[in-house]
Write a structure and sequence with these properties.
With 234 residues, this protein is α+β, with helices and mostly antiparallel strands. It contains 9 helices and 5 strands. A 5-stranded mixed β-sheet has the order 2-1-3-4-5, with helices on both faces.
């Protein structure tokens, strides 16, 4: 029976692990990084060939990142365990990028500025994610916080969770946003109901909801621009 082939057939200086340690991960190709994560190939196929095949199957690293665990598990040389490993690694990278992209002090005084900030952060996500952005009186960003992941409902997005961070930060106003993985940013009835509930809570707390932005691959919509959000910024 053919053995699983790793990278030991390569000269030591050309193996991904040794190159990573010597030159840093930025020196490796996407296929090499994926090969390093996988460790071994499959019967009769080198691990780098398995990695290249996976990238080719979905067209790019971005395509691979958007694939489901079930789709990845069907790739030759993968299976459920490796699919989970790959998705965990990609999610760690995404969360690190999200943290490093946080821009305290950034001004978000218009729907255009808010969309420009939010679209690259929310549009690529496969799961519906709800963010709360705490702002000061000059509409500068104090804190960005994820309060819910999953289909948006009034039970998942409760005013208590939405405004707790804003109160801690001493925010003067809040802006909320979530994504539509379907690709269509058109607000649903539930989106509108959640917005009205949060707007009322903000009015009672004296921390106005200034906008609710919905982001999708097909575009983005500001509910303030649509006239749904009516509270006046402080």
């Amino acid at each position: 029976m053919p053995e699983k082939r790793g990278t030991k057939a390569l000269p030591p200086e050309e193996r991904p692990r040794e190159r990573c340690l010597r030159l840093g991960p930025e020196a490796l190709s996407e296929a090499e990084l994926l090969a390093l994560l996988l460790g071994t190939g499959r019967a009769g196929e080198d691990v780098q060939d398995v990695a290249r095949r996976a990238l080719s199957a979905f067209g790019s690293l971005d395509g691979l990142g958007r694939a489901s665990a079930r789709e990845i598990a069907k790739l030759p040389g993968f299976g459920p365990a490796r699919a989970a490993l790959l998705q965990a690694a990609l999610e760690l990278g995404r969360r690190r990028a999200e943290e490093s992209a946080f821009e305290p002090g950034r001004k978000l005084s218009s729907h255009r500025e808010a969309i420009a900030y939010l679209k690259p952060r929310l549009a690529p996500l496969r799961q519906e994610t709800f963010l709360v952005l705490s702002l000061d009186r000059k509409s500068r960003l104090l804190k960005s916080e994820t309060v819910s992941r999953g289909t948006l409902t009034s039970s998942l997005v409760h005013p208590r969770e939405v405004f707790a961070g804003a109160i801690r930060e001493g925010a003067a106003q809040v802006l909320v946003a979530h994504n539509h993985p379907s690709g269509d940013p058109e607000p649903s009835d539930e989106d509108l109901a959640v917005t009205k509930r949060l707007e009322e809570a903000g009015r009672l707390l004296g921390i106005p909801l200034v906008d609710h932005v919905i982001v999708a691959r097909g575009g983005a919509i500001s509910l303030r621009q649509l006239g749904v959000v009516r509270q006046t910024p402080t």
